[in-house]
Amino acid sequence: MRTAIKFTTLAAIPLLYSFTAISGKSAIRTLNGDDTDGMELRSVQVEGFESEAWTAVVSPGDPEAIPAVVDQQGVPMQGEKWNSPEVGLKGEGNKPCRPQNLANDETNKKCLGLRFKFIYPGNNTVALIPPASKKVYRVLDELDHNNKPKVQEVPGLKLPGKVKAISVWVLGRGNDYTLEAWVQDWRGSTHVLKMGSVNFVGWRPLSAKVPVGVPQDIDTYPQTKNLVLTKLVLRSKPTANTEKVVIFFDSVKVLSDLYDVHFDGADVDFDEQDKKEKAEAKEYAKNLQKYTQGGK
Known about the structure:
2 helices, 17 strands, disordered N terminus, 9% helix, mainly beta, seven-stranded antiparallel beta sheet
């Protein structure tokens, strides 16, 4: 499934040395030489929180049944919502919710707002899950009961290219929590990227590098195997109190290498399955070309 994303040029960096010499991996040879001896770094926005709200899941769950924290009617005292997160898109036309650095982007008027409160301090977490409409489908190296390849549905945001780093703007109010980005690679393994503390006031960008050991490509065409952002996780520190937490998020971006292999003869099909897989690869390459040329 295609995901609409915004694009901002960051840099175009050609490599002056051989990819094979660096990694020891084989490279695809083309009429133009080694296509993997190139790199095209771009900053791409993959989520602007403009149309659909994410879902918040807390751990531990709602303890409303505990007598010590409810009134006689069995509901939270004073109208408070314990361990029950509230989440939604915030911002209005005359009061847009966005960092000042993004004020030049007139299409960015909303952000994701989150409010929650835990009753006990400790290892409390809030996971922000992308909307149900954001899904990635992957063909597994397994067969189903009909002897056909299994297709895995991965909820999350498909990250373009080979990702070097991921960032998000956070509007904090001084709560002692940390932020993590959870990404899944094409083999099904999940990698937790530590983005840092949100214990500050005002808008601030947080980022994390993707370790070089996270698999994002293979030695055959098509090479790129996209990562999927499956969740953003807020995790309390032991020193965090149980005050109400209000926090906002905007502009999830990736710094990504959008260079991909193109070669003469790619249109020759073996069968319908091969044709379908290459059609998807061609559409992906078309989008990459559009990004590198400054398209939207």
